[in-house]
Design goal:
Blueprint lengths: L1 H17 L3 H5 L4 H19 L4 H23 L4 H21 L10 H4 L2 H27 L14 H18 L5 H18 L5 H29 L12
Helix pairs in contact: 1-3, 1-5, 1-7, 1-10, 3-4, 4-5, 5-7, 7-8, 7-10, 8-10
């Protein structure tokens, strides 16, 4: 099951955050864009699994329905962080249900015999890194949209985005390396480095909210990735620190 889950997770990240362009996101209300993205979901899942099983078509169809629902919500309500998070949770739940319902999708694919077990783990770690850094940027950006007036007036172009990607990437690496305690040092270091800028900003809450949101996303996705990785290795799903015995 976990091999199938890792491959589908990897395919989802490729379809939603690598192959889906900003223009596609902005024109998601157009049928052609929706169908193009759905085709990308089908192709990436098929390639990741090395299979054309009918379950992949089911995955693509459900993905399309979820995207239609999100598009309608955004069009009639708002384009904030809420529909984005609901959309991603729905996709992840779909992937989990399909992996549980058809756990042999990976084993029946052409890659199972050729990768000798390392394939799903490699796909999982790559997907986790992209989801933590790139997808986290989209989520935090959606959250911070209503607070844009409180953004620091003087900053490097895209500086905040780069800082966010780096800090989420470091958190991810610390979890994967079994060193989550190092996150405390990262928080302390950022607090010291940003203290002068924040202390002079009447709307310091903007920086605090963005930082906490970025850290929370990185920690959540890192734990999710580790849980799937533990499942691949037959370890307890919530085991974070490596066994010292």
């Amino acid at each position: 099951m976990f091999e199938t889950l890792a491959a589908l997770f990897f395919a989802h990240i490729l379809a939603d955050y690598v192959l889906q362009t900003e223009r596609m996101v902005m024109t998601k209300d157009r049928p052609f864009t929706l169908l193009t993205h759905t085709a990308a979901v089908y192709v990436t899942a098929g390639l990741a699994l090395g299979s054309l099983d009918w379950w992949i078509a089911v995955l693509a169809a459900i993905h399309l329905l979820i995207d239609i629902g999100k598009t309608l919500w955004v069009k009639n309500h708002d384009d904030g962080v809420k529909p984005h998070l609901i959309d991603q949770c729905a996709h992840l739940i779909t992937i989990g249900v399909i992996a549980a319902s058809a756990p042999d999708l990976w084993e029946n694919g052409i890659w199972a015999a050729k990768t000798t077990g390392w394939g799903p783990q490699a796909m999982l770690l790559i997907a986790g890194a992209i989801y933590t850094t790139r997808a986290g940027g989209f989520a935090v950006g959606k959250l911070m949209g209503p607070f844009a007036a409180g953004a620091p007036a003087e900053s490097l172009p895209a500086g905040g985005m780069m800082i966010g990607q780096l800090e989420r990437g470091l958190i991810y690496l610390m979890f994967i390396a079994g060193l989550p305690a190092g996150i405390g040092f990262l928080i302390a270091a950022k607090s010291i480095l940003r203290f002068d800028a924040v202390s002079k900003n009447a709307k310091a809450e903007y920086v605090i909210i963005g930082t906490l949101a970025s850290f929370s996303w990185a920690i959540a996705i890192s734990i999710l990735t580790l849980a799937i990785n533990n499942g691949l290795n037959g370890a307890p799903l919530l085991e974070i620190m490596p066994n010292s015995n």
